Amino acid sequence: MTGLFSEVFLGALLFGAITASVPLLLAGLGEQMSEKAGVLNIGIEGMMIFGAYTGFVAAYYSESLWLGFLAGAVGGMVVAAIMALLCVRLGLNQIVIGIGLTLGFEGLTALLHHFQFSRTYPRLPAAQATVIPLLSDIPVLGPALFRHHLLVYLAVLAVLVMGYIYRRTQFGLNLQAAGDKPAALDVAGVDVVRTRSIAVFTTGALAGLGGAYLANVGAGIFVPFITNGAGFLGVVLAMLARGRPSWVLFGALVFGLCLSLTTAMQVAGINMPTDVIQMIPFLAVMGMLLAFGRKSSLPAALGIPYERGAR
Amino acid sequence: MKKYILAAASAILLSGTMTFGAYSAEVKSIAILTPEEGTDYGWNQQGIDAAKAAGAAAGVEVKIAQGLGYGDVRPTLRELAEDGVSLMIAHASGYNTAAPEIAEETKVPVAIVDTPTGLKAGLVADYTLSGHEGAYLAGRLAAKMSRSKAVGIVVSGEPPSWNSQSAAFAQGVKAESGDVKIIYAVIGPAAYSDAAGGKRVTESVIAAGADIIFGQGNGSSFGMLQAVETTKAADGGKVLFIDVIGDKTAIDKGFLLSSVVWNIEPVYAAMIADLKADTFGTKSYSIGLKDDSVKLLKTAQIPDDVWAAIEPIRADIISGTIKVEPIYEATAVRALMSDVKE
User: Fold this and answer.
1) Is the ipTM of this complex over 0.85?
2) Is residue B282 in a domain?
3) Interface mutation vs chain B, best among A13, A48, A123, A279, most B CBs within 10 Å
4) Model-level pTM?
C-alpha cells in the first residue's frame, strides 16, 4: 500500500468500476432476454457499436445526452431488426448471422467515423451527474456510488423491472416457453415468432443504450471498435446468470471492480507483470463460471429456429 | 566453333545476370498495411504519411491498406503480393507473425515492427523505432512543469517501442527532479481502441495526484485526452497531456502540453534504397533527435523559459553528453517506476 491511496483516489477507482459496469449490465440484461426466448444473440456486439455510433452522433449534434441515449437504443434496434428478420423470421443460423452483424457494423461504423469525424475527433463535455442527497456525502462510497448520470440508476432499476417481468407477467412466461418449448407456446395460441422478435428488439434497445452510454459517458468520444468486446462479455454474463437479472448486475459489478483493481495494483507499483494483473477480471469471470455456472442450464431450444410443425 | 559457343554462352550468362540485377533493383510500388485509419494523429497516420512521402521522393507508387484491425491480415498481404508490390510494410506489431509467413510464401519482402531478431536478408526487415530521446526530453519538461510533483504514464499496451519511451520519460523525470512521483498504468493487454478504458484509467491516475499525463495509445489516447479535458487536478487546476508519435494540435482544446513527434519517412526511404541496393533485411533502422526524425512539439502551454531550458538538453543528447539508452523490456520499465512507493 502506498500513500497514493487517498480518499479521492479510492473514490475514483470505485466510480470507474461503476462506469465500466453499466454497458456490460445493459448488454447482459438484453442478451438474457434473447436467450430466454431461445435466440442466441452473438450480434449483440454489433448492436452495441452501432448504438455507440448513433448515440454519439445524436448527442454531439443535439447537445443532449438523452437524445443520444434514445438514438443509441434505436440504433441497436435497427441491427436487432436484421437479426429478427434473418434468424427469427427466416430461421437462418443465429451464430453465423450474429458474427456477420458484429463484423459488418464494426466496419460500417469505422467507415462512417472516417468520413465524419476522423479529422476532428469531437469530444463531448463531461456528463452531468445526478447527486443523491445525503448518500452522496458518505466518504469514498458516496461520490463513487451516488454521483452518477441518471441512466446509471435507471440501469439498476431495469434489473428489478426485468426480474418482475420474468417472474410475475404472462409475457415473462411466454419468453420462457419460447426458449424451452416453443411448440407448446404455439399450441397455446401465442405467436412464437412475435415473442422472439420482441425479445430480440428489446435486446437491441438495451445493447444500443449500453453502447451509447459507453461512448457518451464512458469515453466522451466515439472511435472505431470502441466497444472492444463488451458485447461478448454481455453474452458471458447472461449465460452465467442463469436467467436471473440480479446475477447479471453482480457479474457486471465484479468485472468493473476487477478492472479498477488492476489500475490500483499498477498505481501501487506492485512488481508483477501487468499481463498477469490484467488477467484478474477475466479470471474472476471464469471463477464465477466454476462456482456458479456448472449447474447452469440454457433454454432447451436456444439457438434453434422455430418452424411450426417441424419435427 | 567452340570459340563462338563459349562466347554465346558467356553473353547469355552476362545478360542473364544483368537482367536479374536490373529486376532485383526495380521498385515500382510499395504497400503499407495499418490496423486503424490513417487519420488518428498518431501511429497509423504517421506511418501512412511517411510511406507516401518516401514513395513520392523515390518515384514509387504507394498502395495503402488501412483500418485492417488487429486480426488476420494474411488475405490482404497475399492480395497485395499478387498486385506486384515490391515491399509490404506491416505497420502493426500484431502483424509480425503473418507478414514473414506471407513473405516466405510469396517471396515479396516485408517490413515488420518490434522484432529486431526477425531480420532475413532480402525478405524481412524490422523497424523497431523508438522515440526514447524525445520521451526523455518530455520527462524533463513534465518534471519542470508539474505543480503537484506527480506525473502519470498511461499506455494501452506494452510493445517495445512504447516501453522504451515510457522508460526514457521516467528517466527524464528523475534526472530533472528526484522528488517527482511517477504513476504508471496500463489500460489493458492490447487496449489500443479502448477509449473508455483510456478515460477511466487516466481519471484514476489524475485522482492519484498526477497533473501531467504522458499517454501512449492509438484510439484509446482520445479517451485519455477526454479525461484530461474533463478532470481537474488535485489543486483544482488544469491537467496537461503529452502525446506521442503524432501532432494533435489541430484538435487540441488547450490541454496539449507537447508530443514526442516521429517522422518515419527517412526509415521508409532507407528501406526503398536498400531494396534497390539488394541490402534489404540486413540492418535495423532508427529514428532520433539528430535528424529531427524525433522531436518534441512546442505548444503555447510551454513557457519560453522552460522551452529554453529544454533546448540545451536536446543538444547534449545529440552530442552524446547525455546518453539515453532504449529499454524495451516491460519488466525493466516497471522497475523504473517502483520508486513511487512511500
Assistant:
1) yes
2) no
3) A123
4) 0.85
